[in-house]
């Protein structure tokens, strides 16, 4: 049954347009049509989507040499009893004892030159790809993991193939072993890439924060900037590419057989002993600027510039085209991230957050006053990147003025939104209207998207006619993104280091809170307001339980998702109206990647063994 259905998936995939990667929604539509035509049940939808995707990418994968491929294996394929391998944050350090199929698969893959990682659903996969270590991924996992992890990889245009496990028991599971070996042995056939990909632009954005590139684009004024990897300024060993988070490097080093300790390599006061005090601020700022983050804002700037120049960096010669982007554009992209990092330092102080990027927050390491000053320094650095001529720049004065004006406007609006949030948080009356919450979102989140898009478009030439579409698109994208952030707060969001319900405990004004007040009766409203009162005697768990119960009673989660759909539709409408096909494609890509809904409960699936045969 599975063989027959996989063959049909390949036939369908061969008929698809391979110029652009499929989104998850597009893949779902194709899979549904295929199941309807074959009179097969919807319970096979996820399995079919994975196999259509694998078939779509198999020819593209063959153009990637094995040494540039990553092979992912789940730890649950091991024998649960008596397995000698250790499992840590970087995956399973599999000792090839031959006791399970992991060793067999791994041996074949490593003989061919693959990088191998035993860590099911590892969140570092995309970052490993963006870091430039691999250009394609093959893997084995259960269906729900594949549907979550592969979606982002597909959107980036990364060749990716997978074989689903035959069960999701997470213990002594099985897989179609012949399929896995066939996938691993996909032959290398040198050829030009066919499907467009944003991965080279993603890598270009990440590379801005490597020590040499960062120092070239933003020369340190005091001669310190980021310490040399061999400098005694940092006691712990530093990574070669500071743009990657410690977990990524750990995983990649595990692939190479070495795992250095990067758990505590942020600059601390003791590291600055003997350093000129005037230069210390620069050292702290450059260190924070270079570490952590997704670099989505500089990516947007580079991608917008490339789109206006024809979108060549997403084509077969994407690597060389991305490398040819002028330094002036890179400085504009870097300035966007510099402003963002400055706001994070200040936000952490205002919210008294203890950690950022897995390290103690700047104000916890150096004190509040010094952290405020570091944030101010990065604001100045951001403006300096755009306001003056540097070697290799060829930017007209009018363009510089337009960029500075756009960034200044974004900076002011961000401060207004943050100020409104703080005033509400500290007010005695915690009543909030949904429209007011949405206004705060539009001020806090949308300006960064707008400034990043406008900077890239303006650096490519005259942006006349695109200012208003960029503003409308960014407003709706930013608002929808912030609503999703609210929803993630209630299911826990590892990427933002949130625990469920943190916004309620921190007293932040959210759309969920406003919608609950709007749809609850008077008694329930008073109960909800009491949770946020300074004299509330409830424990944290009681407050969260009460808030969750009232939120569900008011139906705020469904209402919020409806608003996400509304703002997404508005953003897509703006994209529909764009004349530039590469820019339109970028807008759609941003919608698909930024507006990732929280995971919803998965429906029951039908076992393939009892499904009707293919007609």
UniProtKB/TrEMBL annotation:
Keywords, in A-Z order: Magnesium, Metal-binding, Transferase
Cofactor: Mg(2+)
Domain of life: Bacteria
ATP-binding listed as a keyword: no
Record Pfam families: DUF116, polyprenyl_synt
Protein's UniProt keywords contain Magnesium: yes
Membership in a protein family: Belongs to the FPP/GGPP synthase family.
Name recorded for this polypeptide: Polyprenyl synthetase family protein
Organism: Aporhodopirellula aestuarii
């Amino acid at each position: 049954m599975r063989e027959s259905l996989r063959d049909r998936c390949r036939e369908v995939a061969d008929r698809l347009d391979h110029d652009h990667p499929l989104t998850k929604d597009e893949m779902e539509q194709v899979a549904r049509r295929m199941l309807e035509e074959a009179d097969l049940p919807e319970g096979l939808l996820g399995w079919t989507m994975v196999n259509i995707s694998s078939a779509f990418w198999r020819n593209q994968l063959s153009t990637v040499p094995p040494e540039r491929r990553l092979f992912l294996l789940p730890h649950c394929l091991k024998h649960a009893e008596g397995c000698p391998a250790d499992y840590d944050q970087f995956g399973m350090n599999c000792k090839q004892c031959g006791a399970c199929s992991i060793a067999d698969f791994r041996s074949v893959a490593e003989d061919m030159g693959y990088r191998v990682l035993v860590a099911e659903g590892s969140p570092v996969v995309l970052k490993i790809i963006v870091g430039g270590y691999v250009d394609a991924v093959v893997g084995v996992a259960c269906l729900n993991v594949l549907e979550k992890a592969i979606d982002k990889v597909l959107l980036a245009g990364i060749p990716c193939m997978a074989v689903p496990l035959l069960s999701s028991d997470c213990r002594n599971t099985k897989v179609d072993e012949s399929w896995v070996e066939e996938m691993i042995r996909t032959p290398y056939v040198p050829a030009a890439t066919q499907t467009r990909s944003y991965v080279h632009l993603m890598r270009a954005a990440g590379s801005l924060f490597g020590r040499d590139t960062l120092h070239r684009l933003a020369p340190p004024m005091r001669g310190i900037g980021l310490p040399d990897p061999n400098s005694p300024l940092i006691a712990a060993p530093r990574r070669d590419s500071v743009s990657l988070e410690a977990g990524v490097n750990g995983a990649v080093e595990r692939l190479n057989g070495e795992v250095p300790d990067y758990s505590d390599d942020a600059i601390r006061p003791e590291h600055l002993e003997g350093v000129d005090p005037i230069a210390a601020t620069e050292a702290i700022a450059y260190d924070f600027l270079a570490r952590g983050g997704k670099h989505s804002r500089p990516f947007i700037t580079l991608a917008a510039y490339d789109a206006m120049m024809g979108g060549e960096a997403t084509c077969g010669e994407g690597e060389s085209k991305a490398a040819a982007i002028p330094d002036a554009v890179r400085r504009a992209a870097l300035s966007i991230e510099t402003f963002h990092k400055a706001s994070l330092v200040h936000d952490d102080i205002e919210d008294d957050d203890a950690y950022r990027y897995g390290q103690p927050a700047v104000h916890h390491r150096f004190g509040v006053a010094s952290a405020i000053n570091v944030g101010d320094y990065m604001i100045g650095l951001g403006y300096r990147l755009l306001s003056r001529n540097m070697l290799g720049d060829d930017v007209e004065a009018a363009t510089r003025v337009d960029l500075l004006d756009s960034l200044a406007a974004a900076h002011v609006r961000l401060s207004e939104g943050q100020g409104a949030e703080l005033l509400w948080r500290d007010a005695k009356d915690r009543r909030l209207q949904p429209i007011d919450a949405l206004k705060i979102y539009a001020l806090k989140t949308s300006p960064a998207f707008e400034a990043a898009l406008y900077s890239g478009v303006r650096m490519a030439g005259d942006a006349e006619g695109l200012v208003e579409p960029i503003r409308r698109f960014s407003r709706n994208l930013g608002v929808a993104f912030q609503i999703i952030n609210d929803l993630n707060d209630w299911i826990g969001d590892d990427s933002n280091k949130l625990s469920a319900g943190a916004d309620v405990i921190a007293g932040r004004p959210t759309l969920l809170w406003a919608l609950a007040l709007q749809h609850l009766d008077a008694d329930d409203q008073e109960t909800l307001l009491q949770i946020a009162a300074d004299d509330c005697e409830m424990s944290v768990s009681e407050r969260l339980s009460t808030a969750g119960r009232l939120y569900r009673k008011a139906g705020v989660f469904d209402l919020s998702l409806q608003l996400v759909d509304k703002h997404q539709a508005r953003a897509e409408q703006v994209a529909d109206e764009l004349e530039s096909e590469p820019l339109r494609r970028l807008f759609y890509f941003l919608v698909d990647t930024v507006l990732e809904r929280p995971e919803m409960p998965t429906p029951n699936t039908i076992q393939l063994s009892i499904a009707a045969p293919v007609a």
